[in-house]
Amino acid sequence: MMIKCMITALCLVACTEVSISKTYQPTDSAFPEDTIVEDDTNVEDSDSEDTTVTDTNDDDTSNQTDLSQTVGYVELGLMQASCPYCLGLQQEINITAYARFHQATGASHTNWLPQTDGCRDYYETTVSSPNTDVGQFVTLQNNFGDNFTLNQTYDSTGVAYENGYLMESSFRRNTAHTLNAQNKNAENVIETLRGFDFIEPYTMLYVDPSYAFQTPVYRTGDNVFTWGPSGDVNSFFTIHISVYSNDGSYYYGTVICRSPDVGYMSIPGSYFSQYQQGNLTSIHLMRHRVFLDQYIDFGGTIESYSWWEVIGTGFIQ
Hints:
By secondary structure, the protein is an all-beta fold. Helices cover 0% and strands 42% of the residues. The two termini are 21 Å apart.
């Protein structure tokens, strides 16, 4: 993502106010705050991989179609930018729903995420299998009566389905959604995540462009970030730090680090030793969940990806 912030004197009122979209539920939710604690009887084995495959057909499968290949992908996530203007965004909170259906493949849509704990340079990955058309729209529904319509569109992969105008009031935390497409159903195909009550360093969340880019990212020593709540064993955590020129006009690279969702992460400064003092950074703290399930209606596996992201700003020191 290219930073589009102009580092010139801005005739704005100085403001260091921070706003984090917290973990509360909408008022009509069946998940009040004191019940958003994961139940050990309901979670995946913490020693297992982050992706879980469940066969939804209990009958004898000896004569059934092989459902192990991936034929679809669903994504539902929330991104909050502390300083939208600094990142070239129109608004602070952006909620995106996306779906894609394609010919069967063994490739994964989420291979761009680190598969093990630690840090590496960021790189993109794609699934090249040809897309399939499943109608003019698909919907995601939850038990609260929210129906998100994803309209047919086209992107670099071909026919896809997207809705980038969802309201935060209808984005329910820790809630399963069912996918519907041409009378085909994928029950509980994706589950949203919860957000944050606090993130440190606090300075990365300054909202005014004249006060942004105050958090140092050190080239020596460790860079420590903390967040809460934490401890969701169904999710994992990444921090992406992207580096730009001093005026924000050139993108240099991104370091992405992964850990369990334990509430803190330490990133060695050696990953930023090649950058110059004063280079600007965007700092992305993200909670993720990846899930795989087999659906007879769709003739294969659907991969789902839910995420919650907060973007702050900083500089190389």
